[in-house]
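User: For documentation purposes, I need each entry recorded in a consistent format: the amino acid sequence on its own, followed directly by the corresponding structure tokens. There are two entries in this batch. Please keep commentary to a minimum and don't merge the entries.

Assistant: Recorded as requested. Entry 1:
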Amino acid sequence: MPQAWQHAIEHLHSAMEISELIKALDVDQVLRTIKYPKEKLGAIQDIHLPSLQPKDTEGFGCKLFVYRKGSCTPPHAHNHLVSAHLILRGQIRTRKFNRLEDAQQSIVIEPTVDGVFGPGHTDSMSDDENNVHWFEGVSDIAVTFDIPVWDISPGKKYGYPANGQIFIDPTVPPRGDGRIVAPVISFPTAVRKFA
């Protein structure tokens, strides 16, 4: 169950020593060498865990996301994916939404989280809970450790097939019930509007 994975990894993260993880992932070296996008987007660095062979990591990834102040990962949904971002450094504004329905050229969402969080906080998502997320760097530098796992719930059907991210605009006015009919937008449009 995707939700069970979310809650289990959040529990695991809460028991981890952040300073040891920063050292094991060599975050300081990544920060010295990472290349930032031209736009105000978060930079992404794939991480190889030395104790794992490539065959051991089929179906999941290990990534560091690095945000400068004001840079972001634009709001988006995923299909057939679970993911968990553990904040290692800095402060990040997190906005999350439940995905309720795929409508024509839009996704109906419901806000669940809007807050600023720091080291030790985990933001997880799945098909079933907080499927839409949007991150923005608040401090000069912020770093998250992300573990995405693919091909979850392969039988689940969506109105928008996707191999990656489905970008949406959740800033349109909500309906009377508080839900948002968020238009599906292209990546370039998402960059122009949010980055």
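Entry 2:
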Amino acid sequence: MTNVELKEQLETQIAYWQKILRLQDWLVIVNFWPHAALGSRVCQAEISRNSKHVVLSFRLPEDIPAVANDWPEGEAEDYDLSIVHELMHVLVHDMQSKEEWAEEQVCNIIARALVSSYRQRQPGNNCLTDSVRVTRQAGHYL
């Protein structure tokens, strides 16, 4: 899959999740950042509440193995989880507190639940990298 094809697939999934999360009035911009710029993250959101836009910067698939060991099995390669997680940050942005970990946990839990529900209703329509597709087919994922 080319980067252009991946970007198109990400944008399709983002539009779906924007509708589910009622964020259709937000402009979401997709770009890719080099490995070093994202640290151990797969995706990063830059939120501008005043202009209602968010830039989602994704790690390219070939850069994911470098951080995959820091994530639960299969999650680093799962762009759907990253999309939902970062869009959840848009929803809870106003709740920012001194305890950032609480916001992260909320986003992780809800993202997993929503993606799992989506996949039960829409099998085969997702943004998994090839390595996770193989894992899922073997019955080792959500």
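Summary note for entry 2:
The mean pLDDT is 81.
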